[in-house]
Design brief:
Length: 421
C-alpha cells in the first residue's frame, strides 16, 4: 500500500469514528427497558388500588363498604368492555401506527355509553340482588363506568404506538384518581354514593389527561378514516378478557358453595396469594401484546415474557412457602393461622393463571380466538372438578390447580405454534 493510500485510509477511519460519536446512542436493550417501565407502573397502580380499598374500608365501615364493595365487584365484570377496547386499540395501532385513529375514539365513546346504559337498564336487578339502600347508587356506578371504559381506548392507543412511558403515566394517573376520590370521601366523612360520584369526576379528569398525551403522538397521515378492523376484533378481545375474569373467579365462587363457612372464609383470604402473583405478572402480558400484534421482535419479546413470568412465579411460590404463616398472621390475624399451610398452592394457581393470561393475550394479538374458547371451557370444567373433589380446602385448590395446569399447557403449546409461523 502506498503512503497516499495509507493516509487516505487513516483519514477515513478518523471520519468514521467522529461520525459514530455524533450519532445518538441507541438503548442497549429497549425491550427490557420498556418492560421495566411497565412493571413499575403496574406495581404502583396495584398499590394505589389496595390503598383505595383500605381507605374506604376504614372510612365507610363494614356496612357502608359492604354496599360499595358489591358495586365495585360488579364494575370488575363491566370492565371487560374497557379491557377489550384497550386490547383492540393496541392491536390496531401496533399493526399500522400511521393509520387514522378517529374510528377508535368513536367506537370507544359508543361502547362506554352502551356500558353505562346497560348498567342503568339493570338497575332493578342489581338493586334486588345486592340489596342496595337506594337504587340511585346504580346511577352513580353507571357514571363511573363511562370514563373508566373510555380510558381503555386511550391506554390502548398509547401502548400500540410504543409510548410505554405515556401509557404508564396514564395507568398510574387512573389509579391515583380513584385513590383521590377515596381520600376525599374519608376526609369529608361521606357515603358510598359520594365515593362513586367523585370517582366518576376524577375519571373524567383522567380522560382529559389521556387526550393530552395522545395529542403528543405524531398525527396519522392517511387520508381515509374508515376502520381497518371491524367489530370482530373488539368481540375477540372481549371474548379473551371475559374468559380470564371468569376463570379467575371460578374456584372462589365454587368454594363458597361447597366449603363450610369457616373454610370458605379461609379460602377467600388465601386467594390473595394467587391474586398477587397473577396481578404481579400482568405487565408481562400487556408488554408483549403490541409486539405480537405488529410481529415486531415477537419471538424475543415472548421469550422475555415467559422468563419474567417464571422468575416472578418462582419468587411468589417460594415466599408463600417460607413466609406464608407470617404473611397470614400480619394480613389476617391469628384466626386464619390454620390456612397458612395452603398458601403455596394458591401461589401456584396464580402462577398458572399468569401463563394462561400471557398465552391468551398472544392469541388475541395474533387475531385468533381458539385459546379464548379453551379458557371459557375451563371454567365449567373447574366447577365440575371442584364439585367432584373432596370438599376441603386441599381438595378444592388441588382440583383448580389440575385444571389450570391443563389450560396453561395448552397456552404454552399455542405460543409455540405462533413462534413456528
Amino acid at each position: 500500500m502506498t503512503q497516499f493510500a495509507r493516509s487516505r485510509a487513516s483519514l477515513q477511519r478518523r471520519r468514521g469514528a467522529l461520525a459514530r460519536k455524533a450519532e445518538p446512542e441507541t438503548p442497549r436493550n429497549p425491550l427490557a427497558r420498556s418492560g421495566a417501565v411497565l412493571a413499575v407502573a403496574t406495581v404502583v397502580a396495584g398499590v394505589l388500588g389496595y390503598v383505595y380499598i383500605l381507605v374506604l374500608t376504614r372510612a365507610l365501615g363494614p356496612v357502608g363498604y359492604g354496599v360499595l364493595g358489591s358495586l365495585l365487584g360488579l364494575s370488575v365484570v363491566l370492565s371487560i368492555a374497557s379491557t377489550a377496547l384497550q386490547l383492540e386499540a393496541t392491536r390496531a395501532v401496533a399493526i399500522d401506527p400511521s393509520a387514522p385513529r378517529g374510528w377508535l375514539h368513536r367506537r370507544g365513546i359508543a361502547i362506554s355509553f352502551a356500558t353505562g346504559a346497560l348498567t342503568l337498564l339493570a338497575t332493578p336487578l342489581i338493586d334486588a340482588v345486592l340489596r342496595l339502600p337506594t337504587p340511585t347508587l346504580v346511577f352513580a356506578l353507571a357514571a363511573v363506568m363511562l370514563p373508566q371504559t373510555y380510558v381503555g381506548v386511550q391506554l390502548g392507543i398509547l401502548l400500540g404506538a410504543g409510548r410505554t412511558g405515556a401509557f404508564s403515566l396514564l395507568l398510574v394517573v387512573s389509579g391515583a384518581s380513584r385513590t383521590a376520590a377515596a381520600v376525599l370521601t374519608a376526609v369529608l366523612h361521606q357515603s358510598p354514593a359520594f365515593a362513586l360520584w367523585v370517582s366518576a369526576a376524577t375519571g373524567v379528569a383522567t380522560n382529559v389527561i389521556g387526550a393530552l398525551l395522545i395529542r403528543r403522538l405524531p398525527r396519522p397521515h392517511l387520508a381515509s378514516d374508515h376502520p381497518p378492523i371491524g367489530w370482530s376484533g373488539f368481540l375477540r378481545a372481549a371474548l379473551g378478557a371475559g374468559a380470564l375474569i371468569v376463570l379467575l373467579n371460578a374456584d372462589l365462587l365454587t368454594a363458597r358453595a361447597v366449603l363450610p363457612d369457616k373454610e370458605s372464609g379461609w379460602y377467600a383470604f388465601l386467594t390473595v396469594f394467587g391474586r398477587v402473583t397473577f396481578w404481579g405478572t400482568n405487565f408481562v402480558a400487556l408488554w408483549v401484546f403490541p409486539h405480537e400484534a405488529a410481529r415486531e421482535s415477537a419471538a424475543k419479546a415472548r421469550a422475555y415474557a415467559l422468563t419474567a413470568v417464571a422468575v416472578i412465579a418462582t419468587f411468589a411460590v417460594a415466599s408463600s412457602w417460607l413466609a406464608g404463616d407470617v404473611i397470614t398472621d400480619t394480613l389476617a390475624g391469628p384466626e386464619y393461622a390454620g390456612a397458612a399451610g395452603y398458601a403455596p398452592w394458591f401461589a401456584v394457581a396464580g402462577s398458572l393463571l399468569s401463563v394462561v393470561q400471557l398465552a391468551t393475550y398472544v392469541d388475541v394479538a395474533r387475531g385468533r380466538r381458539r385459546l379464548s374458547l379453551v379458557v371459557w371451557a375451563a371454567s365449567p370444567a373447574m366447577v365440575l372438578a371442584i364439585w367432584l373433589a373432596p370438599h376441603t380446602i386441599a381438595g378444592v385448590i388441588s382440583a383448580a390447580v389440575v385444571i389450570l395446569t391443563v389450560v396453561a399447557a395448552a397456552g404454552v403449546a399455542s405460543m409455540r405454534r405462533s413462534a413456528a409461523r
